[in-house]
Amino acid sequence: MGMNVSRQVDLTENEYLQRFVGKTHVPAYDDDFWNNFLQYHINLPTNSQEQLSLDLRLEALCQSFISHNLHTGNFGSLINVFLLKVSELLTLSDTESNVHIWHAFNALFIIRCLVKYMIETGSEYQLLQHFEALPVQAADNDTTPSEPYSAGTSQTAIPMDVRAVEETKAAVAKLVDGTKFETFLEALVNIIVVIPVKEFTYHLHLEAVNCMIILLSVSLFSQQTMEKSTIYRTIYRCQHANTLMSALLHFLSRMSQAPQTMFGFGTGGSFVFGIAESLWSILTFARKQPDILTAHDLPTAFREHYPLANQSLLLILILTNHHATKDNPYRISLFGCSDSQDSPKEDPATFKIDFSSLYNTLCRIVTIDQATLLLYLLLYRNQRFQKYVMAQQNLQQLVIPILQTLYNAPDSTSHHIYMSLIVLLILSEDDNFNKSVHQIMLKNITWYTERSISEISLGGLLILVVIRTIQYNMLKMRDKYLHTNCLAALANMSGQFQSLHPYVAQRLVSLFETLAKKHARLDQQLKQPNGPNGEPDVSIPIGGGGLTSEDMLQDLSVLEEVLRMVLEILNSCLSHQLVYCPNLVYTLLYKRNVFEAFRSHSAFQDIIQNIDMVVGFFSSRLQRVQEQRGELGVNEVLEVISKGASQWSSDRLRKFPDLKFKYVEEDAPEEFFIPYVWTLVCKAGCVHFNSETIKGVSAEIVC
């Protein structure tokens, strides 16, 4: 519109916008109008407040558009102009394409705004009506072209070259062979997969990805199943699913930073000097942008500095989690990709990508919710990627950020905590992982503040953080499944515990002690005669915690399961790795009394016997040495334990099955993942929705 669209400009006064949303048909071949209409500068919204402000300023124009477009067909004209711009981009050189990219971007931004408004306020059917609407008196029926619009106040008609008009009309007719929506979607895909990402194309790619997210957001604002959605059916039968998924994953993997200028403006000889380069500000920064690893707020820094990577990641999650139980080409594509460095003789893959680059990127951003979810999908569903990760020598780069997420649980959502734990559980299913984490030594873990530890193995740190998560869950979340997954990860690792730090051994035994005390309190409260016949009265809260006896019986049952698991973890370590865990034996000797109350309990008796046998063996050796030397210090006790361990035989212990737990996704994953993914899109994305009109996919979660 030949101007800068600042936050103060009254858009309703713009004459080009007025004509576009008005009662008059604007044909696609009216170059004079479209060149003026698409020549504008805008500060794009970067947060929900700015989006709300823009929506309010556009609302009157959008309402006028809705009222008139089914008669004027101007939206279809804009789509045709956009399609022409995109088709021409594929044949132009970089220098020639600058203006086309600028105009294509501006056209797509207007399309995105209108589509977003129609999705939020209307139905999918109405949206598609506007896509396909033709002018009531189609210009194609005239023998001469319509007069173009002149921006001057005199409204003087400017003659057009009739041959050029006819050529343009023929090109448009060729482009829209089929439904206009399908052709538009194909153009979006072409932008993403065909046009190379360069500094001056970055924001066009970003806008294409955003527009696809907007189209898929129809599920947020509709209560119909997506199997009946024309938009979803069209997107999910796309023949280019592999190339689209490949492009999106490459956008993430490369993690290109948003350029400080748009479309390469500011380079020598560029036309931009004539149109006020300083007005452009889409996600750009005047100062040098810091690496996101040093940023305090990582999710915000990732969204603002790497918007194409962020939005591509969110689009990947949307495409792969809808239709999860059906033939989803995007899901098949993501789970079937392979490492571009693999031998060509490997089994056929849906596409190839450098796993090293993807792995390093995920390590950098894995504390971000949406990155954890993608990592989960790849580890759980893509066997090639899982195999690659397990073979890495620098596993600490991936595991430590996940542990930090769990350590800072109050700052994360319950979903993020849950997915982080599932990732650890999947990793713990691999014996090589369980062995290698105890061989990787870490120094000065400053973010772990419970205790200053100068040196600890990665495995020891993992145990500490998981135990802390169990205790946090007991106090705050009270989620049985969280307990189960925490303990399953520790159980998988227990047969490979080695060189446990004294503090790690203490925390393992203290976990049992804490749970044992809670068990004793609950058991005592349940035995209190509250009813008239000395039985617990289930109709009133007991124990001072607002819990009924039924609640407490359930809690007691869960506690006994957890206690049993902790005992099995201790037993597994003693059965397989006793010689390598003197600090654990030392702690068991020191804390032997915590097991006293469970020796006669039927649920624990068998496994307590093994622990008692270990404690008894080393106690007798210590007693003999003490009789000879007198009181022993810590180092002397450890020396006795180490010597005794060399003479210990695990055959003395009762055999139990090896602890092996495997994560299995539930039968209806969509019920969990689709609301979760759209919550991430709404909270972490560059596109902001009107939460008041959301009514699909569990609106209460998304909002």
UniProtKB/TrEMBL annotation:
InterPro entries: Dymeclin. Pfam families: Dymeclin. Belongs to the dymeclin family. GO terms for cellular component: Golgi apparatus. The lineage of its organism: Eukaryota, Metazoa, Ecdysozoa, Arthropoda, Hexapoda. GO terms for biological process: Golgi organization. This is Dymeclin. Keywords: Lipoprotein, Myristate. It comes from Anopheles stephensi.
